[in-house]
Amino acid sequence: MAHRTSPRTDVTRSAILAQLGANGPASRADLARSLSVSPALVTQLTKDLLADGLIAELEQAPSSGGRPARMLGLVASAGRAIGVKVVADHVAFVEVGIDGRVLRSASEPFGAMASTYLTELVDRIRHFLDGGGGAPLLGIGVGVPGSVDQPGSGVVDAPALDWSKVELGDALRRALGLPVIVENNVNALAVAERLFGLGRSHDHFLVVTIGTGIGAGIVVDGAVLRAANGGAGEIGHIPVAEGPRCHCGNDGCLEALIGEAALVARARAEGIISATAGIDALRAAADAGDERASRVFGDAGAVLGRTLAGVVHTIAPAFIVVLGEGTDAWRHWSYGFEPAFRSHLLRHLRGIPVEVETWQDESWAQGAAALVLATPFDADAAGDQARLIRARLVEQAGRS
């Protein structure tokens, strides 16, 4: 009978690869300390990774007494991955090494609502693939702003793109002849955060994104929570008021109140920015000291804070990471967020850390690429695609 690994075990294998790639060779003891896992688990997992040819024994580390520790290093030529972020008007790409390091990136215009969107998306991906090289390509990760049934199948419902039951994974696999993993873009960010960010040393945390939309990725026991239909974390559609109408078709969603379009609409209505100006103009006004502009962000922060207090009470994360293009204006959001968030929490939870990370557009695509690096050891989530990626990884490592 096959041994069934836990989600924590699966993600720790990928985290070992990420740790070695990002920080260089390390002993088993170093890995256990860095990843906050037991030495016994690291010993078990590194044995598997050595057998697969993904890591190698290197020289012994200097010792001040006792037996010198054997150092482990990454077989960096084992592969690379492509990450794709899809939004309504453009597609962002990154190519990453097996350690998650970005090798190159690009962005191209895209019409998600055009009748030829699938053909156009395939053409954009092929164009990016043509510019790559080096280590063998393991697969493609695609992040979308919507719900995905399963990463391995990739059936997408995305109101923001006007997509309903789009069989994106199958379409891309047929056209490109490569393994493809499709996931909600915020869940993809949560995977990247678990492998490469603050989440390396925590099993329970919440990733929140603000900007064009509002979303969340929930990590429990070291794995992203997807729930029955892959839609866990859609905090942007929590009903918080009687109106206005959200693009999902419901009224009063959090995203309809504090998403980028809502902030811009309010600023235009109040004469803070011109009728043709956007979020950049609103942020510039707030940065220049316009109290009305600052109030728009501060009020949004207060609504976000109250809502997240309820989420914290529900899932009890160890900390929260805030990401997204909206964080460029976080110092204005924070005036409303901090008091509203803390005052609505139960007393023993009021000290929960909230970390705001710097943002680049390619971060979305890097999250999508992380799906490829994480899924070889998580067949439960990605099925045949995970097995295909793992086979490529092991095959190429064996040739190194």
From TrEMBL:
Xref: SUPFAM superfamilies: Actin-like ATPase domain (SSF53067), Winged helix' DNA-binding domain (SSF46785)
Establish whether keyword Membrane is in the entry.
no
Listed GO MF terms: kinase activity
Superkingdom classification of source: Bacteria
User: Which keywords describe this protein according to UniProt?
Assistant: Kinase, Transferase
Q: Which Pfam families match?
A: HTH_24 (PF13412), ROK (PF00480)
**What InterPro entries does the database record attribute to this sequence?**
ATPase_NBD (IPR043129), ROK (IPR000600), WH-like_DNA-bd_sf (IPR036388), WH_DNA-bd_sf (IPR036390)
The answer on whether this UniProt entry bears the keyword Protein biosynthesis reads: no
- Tell me its family: Belongs to the ROK (NagC/XylR) family.
Q: Name it.
A: Sugar kinase
Q: Which organism's genome codes for this protein? A: Agromyces mediolanus (Corynebacterium mediolanum)
Ranked from the top, the taxonomy reads:
Bacteria, Bacillati, Actinomycetota, Actinomycetes, Micrococcales
